Protein 1
Amino acid sequence: MRVNLMNIWIVLNETRYPENIGAAARACCNMGITRLAVVCPRRLDRSRILKMATHEASHIVENMLLFGDLKEALSDFNFVVGTTARTGRHRLPTHGPRQLARTVAPISQTNKVALLFGSENSGLTNKHLEMCQAIVTIPTAGFSSINLAQSVMILCYEMFCARPETVKSEPKLATLYELEGMYQHLSEMFGAVGLVNPQHPSYWLNMTRRFLGRYHLKSKEVRLIRGLCRQILRTLSCAKQEGF
């Protein structure tokens, strides 16, 4: 089973230089990926973008989507992969590019997948990575900072070449919009039952994100969790009104 490249999107968040958008579009074109989205670019000079993209990738630039908010840009994706050179205990475990491509192949058959890249100077923040179901780090010999377009090329190449052993595709997964609604409900429930760490208010929610992020939740499962949250919140509200 090959990666379904028609369901792979490159999403560039807060790029600083138009040339990097063009070079990323060219990398996409080289590897058969045609979907590009740009979020809050510092400069959007199409002439500079097209010059770097070259004529062959101009159709990708002409059809790219532009967003003013990252959550909006990712809202209808079923699987979001964040890229980072920084690791740590507050971040999810990372995949290598080849391992990631094998993971994405069955998911991409029926689901929209976003490969998310941060700005050239600071990358993706922890808040950005909270919206991701997987994180990838490109291994290096020591100097970990890689040019944005080069990073795009490496991941696109692995997507193009991936040949995982499995032939089973993943069913349709919940979208980011549905998942974030679920996490908001869980956050309200944690607050209502007093499951809050005053020193780290987001601790339990972040732990829950990591736990549930290991599973590829479907829309029906998200609705089940939200229904449970609603019932708990309703019961607590009634108990409070009755003086319990």
Note: The longest helix spans residues 219-241.
Protein 2
Amino acid sequence: MDQVQLLKDCQSKNMKPIYLFHGEESYYIDLYSKIIEDHVLSDGEKAFNQTIMYGKDTKVSQVVDEAMQFPMMSSHRLIIVKEAQDLKNIGDLNSYVENPNPQSILVLCHKNKKIDKRLKLVKNIEKQGIVFESKKLYDNELPKWVVNYTQLHQVNIENEAALMVAELLGNDLNKIANEMDKVFIGHDKSKKLTRADIQESIGLSKEYNVFELQKFIGMKDFVSCIRIVNYMGDNPKNNPLPMLLASLYSYFSKVFIASANMKSGDAAMMKALGLNSPYFLREYKSAASNYPYSKMRPIMNTLKIADLRSKGVDQRNMTESAILKEMIVQIFAA
């Protein structure tokens, strides 16, 4: 589904009677339902013709009752069911879907999981309206999404900065969008966003962050690594161990891929790593030369042990700082 086309449909009142937004990625479900909520009815029309319902507190019969009513001083009524995944016996909506009120627009927001497409309800919604599945993006798709999101806001971003955003924030699109919206505030749109801009805006220390730690691990610079982990250990709230371990696991997974493709050309290696820019390629190739295939298994095991200890398994009363330092020592000893 294209958000620009949806906006045009809302403004021209060229709407379907039923919309089902479902899937594991909540970002597009929230976005598309908000577009409909903001643009189908005017503020004056909303008072009598818009109803927001929540699945947990709503019965199917109530949804049908609202949808069967006719609009007052408006061309349409709008009924939005948020958290529709909590709507009990949702399949019972099928009787309404088979013959919907053409003057009502029913929006079902089924978040955090896919709906069973084999349901008769879903098949009938496809006939009468729109069914859109909002899928989680793969990690290698995130940098491009960040670039597109910034361009949508008339801002350009360096590929390396987009990659940093993706690696730092993960594949939660709502979180990325919220953080990027903060970055845009006061930014000169004539200038590209850089890694330094992202570090400063998202709150990373320019010297002591996971990206610098990864770089020095890849270079086998033990002294610099210990300096960084000492800082992180003194500032655990700003450097939560679970997030650090997730980033390091992702990093070494890519180093593993690089080590397995050392005989390939740069283009093939970039494709295998999911890189859109050669900026980080040299870094991964250097790390792969320092951590060949034979060292990957013990390193991954070290990360697994650190993760278990961070969750209280065989912790031996170790602090997060101690867990992190021991992990670094074990990685360099691999």
Note: The chain has three domains: 3-133, 139-202, 210-333.
